[in-house]
Amino acid sequence: MFYEPSKNDHKLPFNPFKSCIVPRPIAWVSTISRDGIVNLAPFSQSNILGWDPPYVMFSAYNRFNGDRTDTVTNVESTGEFVYNMATYALRDQIVESSMIEDPGVDEMSATGLTAAPSRFVKAPRVKESPVNLECKHYQTIVLANDTPGLFNSVVIGRVIGVHIDDDYIGSDGKLDVIKMRPLTRLGYLDYSSITDIFEMRPKGISDDVIRGMSGGSSVAKE
């Protein structure tokens, strides 16, 4: 089949586009407002953008009344956020946090999660999450939407601190992703989690290149 997104002429009961780019990691972003109120919300349009230095991004629609989400507002007003890993074990809290829109409600507290202090940013991190990335706001890119009044705010953050729960570091020094079971977004109302891993090792390249592709070439800066 072929269809044009601008015409939405796929003739299917549901738009298939979101199922064409899968799986997508979920950015579970914690922020704090200028008034000191904690906000926590998941975003399924997110990913890594680089690693030297590391950047992450997430994209959020504005609300139909024209306001940006509390997360985007907080990031732009404070210049900080924490990208928490969303996992299968935390799936219920992730859904709950997505349903709260009142800016006066602390989603972390309301969903029974523990606010852990960050090292470099004021926003707390989710203690129950195995990975927390402290980020400084780098840039927001606004993407126009075909629906009048709507737009996407693509928020980019530079990662300045990484917290990893030691319980999820294996004896080989690698993160135990199977134990973490990161939650991923598919299309429709479908989700998945990482339960299977296999390695693909290119042929005909040097061990140094392999080590670099595996993240083993970085040297700690004094």
Summarize it:
This protein is of the alpha+beta class. It contains 5 helices and 12 strands. The protein has helices at 70-78, 91-99, 107-110, 177-180, 207-213; strands at 24-25, 27-32, 38-43, 46-51, 54-61, 80-85, 115-116, 125-126, 131-144, 151-164, 183-185, 191-193.
Low-confidence stretches: none
The coarse overall form would be globular
Largest sheet: 7 strands, antiparallel
Order of strands, widest sheet: 3-2-6-9-10-5-4
Cα-atom radius of gyration: 19 Å
Query: Total helix count?
Result: 5
Task: Based on the model shown, name its key terms.
5 helices; seven-stranded antiparallel beta sheet; globular; three-stranded antiparallel beta sheet; Pnp Oxidase, Chain A; 222 residues; single chain; alpha+beta
Describe this structure in words.
The strands form 3 sheets. The protein has a 7-stranded antiparallel beta sheet. A 3-stranded antiparallel beta sheet has the order 1-11-12, with no helix packed on it. A two-stranded antiparallel sheet has the order 7-8. The relative contact order is 0.18. The chain has one domain (17-213): Roll (Pnp Oxidase, Chain A). It has 222 residues and is an alpha+beta fold. It is 15% helix and 32% strand. The chain contains 5 helices and 12 strands. The termini are far apart.
